[in-house]
Write a structure and sequence with these properties.
Blueprint (H helix, E strand, L loop, with lengths): L1 H13 L10 E7 L10 E4 L5 E3 L5 E4 L7 E5 L6 E4 L5 E6 L5 H4 L1 E3 L4 E3 L7 E5 L22 E4 L10 E4 L12 E4 L2 E3 L19 E7 L2 H4 L10 E6 L7 E12 L9 H13 L13 E2 L18 E2 L5 H4 L4 E14 L3 E13 L6 E11 L2 E2 L4 E16 L4 H6 L36 H7 E19 L6 E20 L8 E2 L2 E2 L2 E24 L2 E20 L12 E21 L3 E12 L8 E11 L2 H4 L6 E15 L12 E3 L5 E4 L2 E4 L1 E3 L9 E14 L4 E13 L2 E6 L9 E5 L2 E17 L3 E18 L6 E5 L6 E5 L7 E4 L2 E3 L5 E6 L14 E2 L7 E11 L2 E11 L2 E4 H6 L18 H4 L15 E3 L2 E16 L3 E16 L12 E2 L7 E10 L1
Parallel strand pairs: 1-7, 13-16, 53-57
Antiparallel strand pairs: 1-4, 2-3, 2-5, 5-6, 8-9, 10-15, 11-12, 13-14, 15-16, 17-20, 17-58, 18-19, 20-21, 21-22, 22-24, 23-24, 24-25, 25-26, 26-29, 27-28, 29-30, 30-31, 31-32, 32-33, 33-34, 34-39, 35-38, 36-37, 39-40, 40-43, 41-42, 43-44, 44-51, 45-46, 46-47, 47-50, 48-49, 51-52, 52-55, 53-54, ...
Length: about 1000
């Protein structure tokens, strides 16, 4: 609480700086649709030398005016506005987006930019005004649901946690499906460092200016061997010449809004009594309820239902006990201005503190970033320095949801006589050695008795030199140096009075583990850009070289409290080096016919000499046919057809040096004896020098459109992509060909086809009233074309039985569910253990399993709305998924009456057992198709309402807002939350619902 007070105090300390001086004519320029300030607007006095531009907050001041002067306000993408000066001291200007807005949007395409109107590939751009609002702790949440073909799913509610990002469903079965992320020109690794929660947790969302998502290979192939899963380019904000200060504050209070349905104390007692009477549970089971009453020696009498003699009963909701109300506080201050009146600069300081629902789970990020972007020699030389430092402090919390669901609700959380720090645990004595085995451990105790902390310090940045030759202005030389280093450490401490630490026999040793790791990423990009217009032909050629090196090393003590643990050791992974030669040509003919050709030749240290280099070409064409076909149309403003083809690679396989000859020191079974003394030998390890890239070929056809003077804009894309040389980690080797019977190899292929649609519409566009909506839809299908030896691949743990519930099979969707077909009685009730004999052999076994549904959605939707009336704003964004199926592993493993007493003690079960009345869990029951459920949902991610005071404390502006994060979800899924990863729900970290309040101050 003290931390929160400090952050609140920080807000009020900054407020007095809002009072700024007036000038001859001053004011602010805002967007008519969003009421947000517009920086960089040109303010020109006609017929005079007086001019200026608006600063970061849209403010301006111009002097030397006389009555009757015409002052013109103009900005790219907006209609100009002219006012007549008549002695007024201030004026507020509202600019409307112009009809050619689509033409002027600039998108990043890798090693360069292109106007949206000239883009030939499938590229989507999201800027600050389009970002999702609310408690967005990590960067990827800013774009969740906003771009067709892109899904972002954290898979749970841990604070600062990373999300699973997929572009068009991914491109691999066993290797990585994560897109390449490029931050200010620096490609970063997708591996989270020790002590951190995610790769993007180190980036302050308040620092981000835009996302550019490259989806098809004609756009991504310029990144070659790492672009098969798409590319996300993140650009951070730049410095400005005018002094501007912005402060953002946000506070949120969160709580648990949903939990797994298990029996409360009253109903649990009734279930235990009923199943003891019917003989399913052993006699005397009711005497295990609650704790022993020391004042009496009587036993329970089953003839008095609901009354348990001789026991003290508690009413403990274990799910509520492991969670708490949470606080979220975010502070960020950004200062822009010109150093020495020469160097545009920006300094941003931020702190984000978020509590997780689990009792001890905290995320705290301190960040600082500096940007310098000066230009010299009439903009012939441009420099840009980005430097970001992040200090991330985490306290992690074990996933105790499964235990909380299982734990007996008649037991207390605390026990004053307990030797385990006063927490209730199952025991038969008063010393720490008197614990019972094969029983669950107190989940509240596990959280409080475990101190699992992590620290990660990360430095990320780049220095870019962009020089346009004086003697040859059509040619630019660009050099970009990038650096990214993370230094992380993590320590896990569990005392010797906790039953969740290391135990040997009946001795509690506890846990004391420490690990540290350093990940370093160094980049050199150097390239030339030639841009020249020849009559009606515009020609641009980019050609360059890229060198990138990744280093990883660290140290691990293992558990020093374990007397038999291995000794502490250092480790270092083989350096990974990537070298690329790339080129791209953009040709525009008559500003109507557009061609793009690119080629990248990549080399990697991950593969042998024979497979080290790969070529990744692409070609694209676009035709602005709206100028011809709809020249005089009052409906169609813009229309552009796009065609694209390209090949991109995938080198992120989990065995980076498997091609090398390696030898391991032999164990006691691999020794030679000389003079009765054993000597270990070097045992050759399996290898595969033929490992190589996965390659994905993509075909894309798209249509960009603008209607009604571009008040409605959007795109429609259809794509097909095929991945060949799929990586599999356990492929059979021919007998005698290797030092193992199986191992990694490149065999197989699969394909994806889909369609994407997006529309952005200004439904209402007036001076004081604007309503904008954005909608996108995605449908895709994935199919496996070839597997090693045509054999099925089984995976996806079905529960404690050791079975699997998912399958890769040729001709089917990856990860389809492979289950038994449940049989039902005439009244529609499922019959326990009764399954269809699908092959008709009279035997129910694995041959009767069949493929039933899959986790892929049939349709994914995103919708956002922004409404502005004068200074009032209201917005929301929601997402929907239809047709995806989920294997409810929790119900499959915990909805059986026999599990009321699974061992020496009682345990809770899901209330859904009342629907099936199933008795025993076994290998067949858990993989019944009855547990494949519809995971379709509609989620309201955020609702925000705000009001802006444009002239607060003089020239400062103040926006106050409130909102709800994770406002509601509509679904038929019977589990906790249908938005999970990989299609299996075996308990997740619940998402919290937060009520938000905040302020934005600009001066």
């Amino acid at each position: 609480m003290k931390t929160i007070y400090k952050k609140l105090l920080f807000l009020f300390l900054l407020l007095p700086f809002g009072a700024l001086a007036q000038s001859t004519l001053s004011g602010v320029v805002v967007d008519s649709k969003t009421s947000q300030p517009l920086p960089g607007v040109n303010v020109i006095v006609q017929g005079a030398n007086s001019s200026t531009t608006t600063d970061f907050d849209g403010k301006f001041q111009v002097g030397g005016l006389k009555s009757g002067d015409k002052v013109v306000f103009s900005f790219v993408g907006y209609n100009s506005q002219t006012i007549t000066f008549s002695g007024q001291k201030s004026v507020n200007i509202t600019l409307e987006e112009s009809a050619n807005q689509l033409q002027e949007v600039v998108v990043q395409v890798g090693y360069g930019t292109v106007k949206k109107k000239d883009a030939t590939g499938s590229v989507s751009t999201l800027t600050t005004k389009d970002f999702n609002k609310g408690a967005n702790v990590t960067a990827e949440n800013l774009l969740n649901g906003r771009i067709a073909g892109v899904t972002v799913n954290a898979g749970g509610g841990a604070p600062g946690t990373g999300s699973q990002i997929r572009i068009r469903g991914g491109s691999s079965l066993s290797a990585s499906n994560d897109p390449l992320i490029v931050i200010d020109g620096l490609p970063v690794t997708n591996t989270t460092n020790t002590g951190s929660t995610s790769i993007l947790a180190a980036l302050n969302p308040n620092d981000i200016e835009s996302f550019n998502v490259l989806k098809d290979a004609s756009a991504t192939a310029i990144y070659g061997s790492r672009a098969a899963n798409g590319v996300i380019i993140i650009n951070t904000k730049k410095g400005s010449k005018k002094l501007a200060v912005e402060y953002n504050f946000q506070y949120g209070s969160g709580r648990l809004y949903n939990q797994v349905d298990v029996f409360n104390t009253r109903d649990f007692i009734a279930q235990v009594e009923a199943n003891t009477i019917n003989g399913l549970l052993s006699a005397g089971s009711t005497n295990l309820l609650g704790v022993d009453d020391p004042t009496t020696s009587v036993s329970d009498d089953l003839s008095t239902p609901g009354i348990i003699e001789g026991r003290i009963l508690y009413n403990t909701d274990w799910q509520k006990k492991i969670y708490r109300r949470t606080d979220f506080v975010d502070n960020s201050v950004s200062i822009r201005g010109s150093l020495f009146n020469k160097i545009p600069a920006k300094l941003t300081l931020g702190n984000t503190y978020q509590q997780g629902l689990r009792l001890t789970n905290d995320f705290n990020r301190n960040s600082a970033s500096v940007v310098l972007n000066p230009s010299f020699f009439n903009d012939h030389l441009k420099l840009r320095l980005n430097a970001n430092f992040t200090n991330e402090n985490n306290r992690f919390a074990d996933g105790v949801e499964g235990t909380a669901i299982r734990f007996d609700p008649t037991k207390p959380v605390y026990d004053a006589a307990s030797p385990y720090d006063g927490f209730f645990e199952y025991r038969n004595g008063n010393t720490t050695a008197d614990f019972l085995t094969q029983v669950p451990r107190n989940p509240v105790a596990q959280l409080y008795q475990t101190n699992d902390t992590g620290i990660n310090n990360r430095i990320l940045g780049n220095f870019e030199i962009d020089y346009k030759f004086h003697f040859f202005p059509a040619l630019r030389a660009v050099v970009n140096l990038g650096f990214d280093e993370s230094n992380g450490e993590r320590r896990r401490l569990v005392g010797n009075t906790a039953l969740t630490g290391f135990i040997n026999g009946n001795t509690l040793y506890g846990t004391n583990e420490y690990s540290e790791a350093t990940r370093r990423n160094k980049l050199l990009d150097a390239y030339f850009v030639y841009n020249k217009k020849f009559n009606k032909v515009n020609f641009e050629l980019t050609s360059g070289y890229s060198y990138q090196k990744f280093e990883v090393y660290g140290f691990n003590t293992f558990n020093v409290n374990n007397p038999t643990a291995q000794a502490p050791r250092s480790f270092a992974s083989p350096d990974e080096v990537l070298i690329g030669l790339f080129g791209r040509t953009n040709i525009s003919i008559n500003d109507k016919y557009l061609f793009t050709f690119s080629l990248r030749r990549d080399g990697t240290s991950r593969f042998s000499d024979a497979n080290r280099w790969g070529n990744f070409p692409s070609a694209a064409f676009a035709w602005k046919f709206g100028q011809d076909v709809f020249k005089d149309s009052k409906v169609v403003s813009d229309m552009k057809l796009r065609l694209g083809w390209g090949i991109a690679g995938q080198q992120e396989i989990p065995v980076g040096d498997f091609y090398l000859e390696r030898y391991n020191v032999g164990d006691t079974n691999s020794q030679y004896y000389f003079a009765n003394s054993p000597y270990p030998v070097g045992v050759p390890a399996p290898r595969n020098p033929d490992l190589k890239w996965e390659t994905t070929t993509t075909y894309n056809v798209g249509l960009d459109y603008g209607l009604f003077n571009n008040r409605i804009t959007g795109s429609l894309d259809a794509f097909y992509k095929q991945t060949n040389d799929l990586y599999f980690g356990d492929t059979p080797y021919a007998d005698g060909s290797n030092f193992s019977n199986s191992g990694p190899a490149n065999i197989g292929s699969f394909s994806t086809k889909g369609i994407e649609f997006s529309v952005n519409a200004d439904v209402i566009k007036r001076d004081n009233l604007n309503w904008n909506v954005n909608f996108n839809a995605t449908k895709f299908e994935r199919r496996i074309d070839e597997l090693p030896a045509g054999s099925d691949v089984f995976f996806g743990q079905a529960g404690g039985t050791g079975g699997t519930v998912q399958i890769h099979r040729e001709g089917y969707t990856p990860g389809s569910f492979f289950v038994y077909k449940q049989l039902y009685s005439t009244d529609g009730s499922p019959i326990e253990g009764a399954f269809a004999d699908l092959n008709g052999d009279g035997i129910i076994n694995g041959d009767d399993r069949y493929i039933y549904k899959n986790p892929d959605p049939d349709l994914v939707l995103g919708f956002a709305s922004t409404f502005n009336y004068k200074n009032f704003d209201f917005s929301f964004n929601m997402r929907a998924s239809f047709g995806n199926r989920i294997y409810n592993a929790l119900k499959a493993n915990r909805a059986y009456n026999a599990l009321l007493k699974p061992d020496a003690e009682l345990g809770n079960v899901l209330t859904s057992v009342l629907d099936t009345n199933f008795t025993n869990v076994n290998g067949e029951n858990v993989i019944s198709d009855i547990y494949i459920e519809n995971g379709s949902f509609l989620r309201m991610d955020n609702i925000t309402m705000g009001y802006t005071f444009p002239n607060w404390l003089g020239k400062a502006s103040l926006r106050l807002f409130t909102g709800v994060q994770n406002a509601f979800i509509i679904t038929e899924y019977d589990g906790l939350d249908p938005e999970i990863n990989d299609g299996r729900d075996n308990t997740i970290y619940p998402r919290q619902r937060q009520f938000l309040f905040g302020a934005n101050v600009k001066f």
